Each structure stands twice: as structure tokens, then as C-alpha cells.
Amino acid sequence: MIEKKAISLTEDITKYLQSITFRGTPLWDRQRMENSSKLNLDLELFETRVTRWKSILGSEDLLSKRLKCNDLKLEDLLSLMGNSNPQTDLPKWSVTLSSILKYYDIARNRSLLKTFQPPVNLETLPFQDILYPLLQYYREQLLKVPTNYLSILSPEAHEMLERQFLSHVSYVTNLSLGVEFSKFRFNMAPASVFESAWSKQKSSRVIYGAFVKHFYGNGIYDFFDQYPVLARLLCQTIEFFILSISTFCQRFFADFHEVKKTFYFQINEPKNAISKLITNLSDRHNNGQTVFQCILSTGDSVIYKPRSISPEISFYNFIKHFNGYGLRLKLKTISAVSKFNYGWIETVNHKSCSTLNEVENFYVRIGYLLAILHVLSITDVHFENLYADGEFPVIIDLETLLDNYIGRNKPGEYTNETSILRTGLLPRWQKDSDGKKFDLSGLGADELQNSGLKIITWQYTNTDQMHLVNDTRTMMSLNHRVFIKENFPSANEFQDSLLSGFKEAYFSLLNNREHILNNYELLQQFDNLELRTLVRDTSTYSSIQLHLLHPEFLKDGIDRSIELEWLARPLMGTKQPREKRIILYKLEREAMEQLDVPHFNTSIKWPVDNNEIDEDFEFFNRKRDSRVIRDNLEKLNYNNYKQILETIRQSIKLRFKGKK
Questions:
Q1: Do 428 and 651 contact (CB within 8 A), yes or no?
Q2: Radius of gyration, CA atoms only, the chain
Q3: Scanning 11, 53, 140, 369, which has the fewest C-beta atoms within 10 Å of its C-beta?
């Protein structure tokens, strides 16, 4: 970047923000220019973008079909991609950007460390020294939360939140900052282009320090001018983070006494109740919301979910009922407090078993859960949704209850009899785009393996020698693995226990079938639940998000929007545009444009068109209520049991082939 003269906070800053706003805006949010004479269009760049779009969709014909969904023709792209800069009111994120820039202006004339003190015990984050003004903005905005709500957070909790905030904004910005640092470093030390040799030099921070100083000189203006899409994403995610924290504080304060009573908290008042707050326990959905873990000053703990927890309550009510069937072991149930669109759930801990008998009991209970998951048609029980609480396996996310969609018959597709693989709990190899195998299942995920995502990390962080390395082998949480001392016995080692547990539970459900079917109160709770519909694997969205954080897609909203068109390919699967598919892609695109993982549930109201039959849209229209349980119970029989048993055996055999 070439440093420009300082920008005054008057007319110049207004023009600057308008330019960034226009270029940072996604393609489909831009207004078409009706008067082509006003266009300022780079025809070579236009052709490059159209060529890229054709490549993503597959052909020019498919691009024409895609544009038809928006009532456009190929020639209309000229007006849609016009580089004019209309004078429009600034959106909220641009106002946020203006405020953030003021903090950099303040730092220009003061000592950085005296002006913006970083939180204590901050891990080394890429380019954290450049991001402290963002932290100061966060602090000032959080002070606008009513004092009684904010009082629930102890000083330690505030510091922890600040560390998590900086970690998130570092994640969003570090690739682009890294590109600019490489250019800056090359200008000061051309030998740094030989990265392998350069990284072996003695560690220093002279160039890195000059780079940080450059940003506080005026470089931040040049940076956002070069990456206006990043400016938008960063400001949006900061506002979402602040809103998420303030909403949580309000809800905890309002629900404190009810939550205290339910979970037997040993603390008497909400003030300074929370000593630690972990905010990143799930993907980001619906304006950056995530699951939190609240750890109180007394050591008590509770999980906050910013969505309906009725699915969890219904599931564990079924478990309580199941525990009354006289089986040799009982499954663990957990307590919860349900509110309209959020809830509080008992924390489940990863604990060791004391004896091998307890390990055996764990796998017997896994067999129980497999039978229940099958009857309740639950999917997505991957390693992050299973906890090994000593000898008790516990499922912590039940949004995919009653998901009995199999799809049309295709070669290699599973039938209803073998759909137990769809639970996600059984071991199962998958392959990434390079053909490397990985397993993310509840029973198969290892501590260290290929995660299926192309992860990039920094080495020699915040030194003159810092550089990126690629790694698809990532350290995973072991919360899903039962363990004793330092050993983590696999499902392969305790296959007999697992199978015996499944048999016991399966035939218990079969023998009690009529009792369950006649229990109206038990089954009624599964009606009218707000449940998640998985349109695509979360890993697909996550891979695209990582891809789109690369600097080349953060320079203009048009380029980022074209890359997102990969998600639009199903729109071209029919001769005529289908309204439901158009709406679905629009919702996906809007979520991805604010760094969310798209989240669909059964409460979405889709347009009804009896003349439009879309087989690929059946997963949204199917029944997801107690009728699914009734149908699954009716299908239980000895032949069905034998088929499922063989599926379980094969999944374990293929996953642990060659291992003892």
C-alpha cells in the first residue's frame, strides 16, 4: 500500500465512505443503472468477471438461465456491474466503519499502548497490534448496555470476551493483512521473497513494528480502500458480536432466579455472577449468534442457546420415558429452561471412566442411543454433538429430530432399513476434494486427522519472519470419546457391548410399541417443533466461507458475489426458474454475505404453487412430527433388526479395518 495524505473527517471522509460502501456492496444489492451513458465500466474487467461466472455455473447457457431467475439477460450485466458511485445514504456498517476510523485517528497522536490496553493473558493473534482500536470501539459500544444487565459479567468475564472478540476479528482480517504485510516487508527487505530461507533467520520485529506504525499513521484508510468488502464484513461481524453479548446479558439477568432454581446455582444474585463466558461453541447463525457456556464464580455452569430448545426437551422427555422400561442401564437426562426463542441447558462435562466396566457400560448405552436415534429419525450426531460424561454418552444438539428424508433412489443410496447411518453417530469414512479420508462421526472421529477443510495457519506470528502454512490435519476435541486414564477405547474394541445394547433397546422399543403409540402426551410434544433442515453439509458452507476470506474476493462485492454463485447452481436444474429455489438461494446468499452459516428450519413459510412440482424440494415439505415416530415404530421387526445390526457391524469394520 502507498500511504496517502490524511483524510479529514468532513467532505473527504464522506466521499471515502461512499466509495467503500458502493464497492463493498454485494452484486445483487446494487441498483441497475438505466442510463448506460453514465456507466464507468472497465470492459476488460467486465469480460473477466463474466468468464469467471460462466466457469462457476458451467456454461454461457447456464448463466443465461441463472440471470432469468432475476429477470435479466446477459446484456443487462453491463448495467448491473457498472462502476458508477451513486450518492446514497450510508448503511449501518458504513457508519460503524466511520466510528472505528476515529479510534485510529485518536491513536495517531498518542501512545498506542496507553490509549488501547489489550486484555490480559491475550494469546498471540495475527496482527493483533493493529486491531486494538476495534477493541476500543467494542468497549465503548458495550457501555451502552444498561448497567444492571452488564453487571452480570465479572472483570474476568469481560477480559475473556475481549480476547474472543479480538480472536474473531483477527480471523476475519488476517489473510488480507498478511498480503499487505508481505508487500510492505518486500519493500524493506527484498530477500524476504525467498520465504523458506527468510523464515530461518533470527526472529525480529523491526519490519513488523514499522508495519503496525504505518497503520496508525494513516494506513488503515488505504487498507479499507483496497478491501472494501472486508470493511463491510468486519463492521457487520463486530456489530453482531456486540448485539449477541448485550442480548445474552439481558436474558441472563431476566431469567437468573428461574435458572438458579432449575440448576441449583450456589450464587444468590446476578451481579458479577459470570466469571467466564465462552462464546464460540457453535457455528454462527442468524446475525452471528452462537451457543455460549456460562461459568459462574461458584463453579456452576450452564449452556445458553439462542434458539428454541424444545427439540432437546422433547428428546430428553422421551429418554425419561425409555428409562422406565426396565433395561439393565439408564441413559442420562439433562435439565433445561425453555423460553420463546432461546433457552438454558445443563452443562455436560467430559469425564473419565473409573473402570473398564464403566467403559463397557458407555458402549452399551451407545447401543441404546442408536436404537432411539433410529426411531426418532435424528441425524447430524457428529463428534461435536456427542459428549462422553464418564460412562454416559450425551447428545447435546437435537435440531435434526424427525428427519426421515431419504431422497429418491440413486445408485449407492441408503434405503430406509439402513438409514441408521444417517444418524451421523456410526463411524464412516468420507473424502475431501483431494481424495483424503476423514471421519467426523460421533464414534469415529480421531484426535488428529484430516478435517476435510483446508486450514491455513501462521508461523512465527507477528515477527518479521511470519508466514502461512497449509494444514488439513487439525487437532479435534476429544469430548466425544470415552476414556479411562489416558486410554480412549474405540467402538471396535467394545463392539459386542454396543451391539448388545442396541439389541436390548431395539426389542424394548418393539415390545413397548403399543404403549408408546397410545401415549398421546408423550408423542404430542414432537408436534409443531421448530427443527433444522440441513440443505447442505455445514462443511460445504464453511469451506466456501474460508475461500471467500481470501483477499482477492474482498476488493469488490461483485467478485465475492460471483464466487457465491456456486450455491446457485441448483437454480439451473429446471427449464423454468422455480420460486422456492430462488428464495432458498437468496437466503443462503444473505447469510453467507454476513459470515453466517445458512440455517433453515421448519418455521420458514414457502410459497405454495400446486402447479410447481419440485422433487428436490421434498425435504422442506415432508412431515416432521409425531407421525415420523409412529411410522418408524410400525417398521420395527426382526428382519429390520438384523439388517440394521449388519449395517452397524460393517460401519465399524470398514472404519477400523486393520486396527485391533
A1: yes
A2: 27
A3: 11
pTM comes to 0.91
Neighbouring residues of 616: CB distance < 8 A, sequence distance ≥ 6: 570, 573, 581
CB distance 588 to 567 below 8 Å: yes
Smallest CA-to-CA distance from 4 within 222, 227, 228 is with 222
CA 168 to chain centre: 13
Structural contact between residues 88 and 21, judged by C-beta atoms closer than 8 angstroms: yes
Q: What pLDDT score does 101 carry?
A: 94
Alpha helix stretches (DSSP H) within 325-424:
356-376
Pairing of strands 343-346, 336-338: antiparallel
Residue 2 pLDDT: 35
Given a cut of 60, is residue 312 above it in pLDDT? yes
CB 460, CB 467: distance < 8 Å: yes
Nearest to 112 by CA among 133, 139, 135, 96: 133
Helices 557-564 and 43-57: angle between axes, nearest 10 degrees: 20
369-378 pLDDT per residue, tens: 999 999 999 9
pLDDT above 90: percentage of residues in the chain: 68
SS3 call for 200: coil
Whether the pLDDT of residue 88 is over 90: the answer is: no
Please tell me the distance from the alpha carbon of residue 386 to that of residue 394, in angstroms, as a whole number.
Answer: 6
Q: Taking each helix axis from N to C terminus, what angle separates 356-376 and 310-322, rounded to the nearest 10 degrees?
A: 120
Tell me the pLDDT of the chain averaged across its residues. Answer: 88
Q: Give 219's DSSP letter.
A: I
Residues 6+ apart with CB under 8 A from 642: none
| Residue where the block lists cell 439451473 | 572
Per residue in 320-350, pLDDT tens?
999 999 999 999 999 999 999 999 999 999 9
Nine-digit cell at 567? 450455491
Counting every residue, how long is the chain? 660
Torsion angles phi and psi, residue 469, rounded to 5:
-130, 145
Q: Which residue has the higher pLDDT, 51 or 120?
A: 51
CA distance linking residue 350 with residue 483, whole number of Å: 9
Question: d(Cα 76, Cα 122) in Å, to the nearest integer?
Answer: 50
Contact (CB, 8 A) for 495 and 489: no
pLDDT at res. 612: 60
List phi, psi (to 5°) of 185: -65, -40
* Chain Cα centroid distance, residue 76: 35
pLDDT at 474: 58
CB 273 within 8 A of CB 297: yes
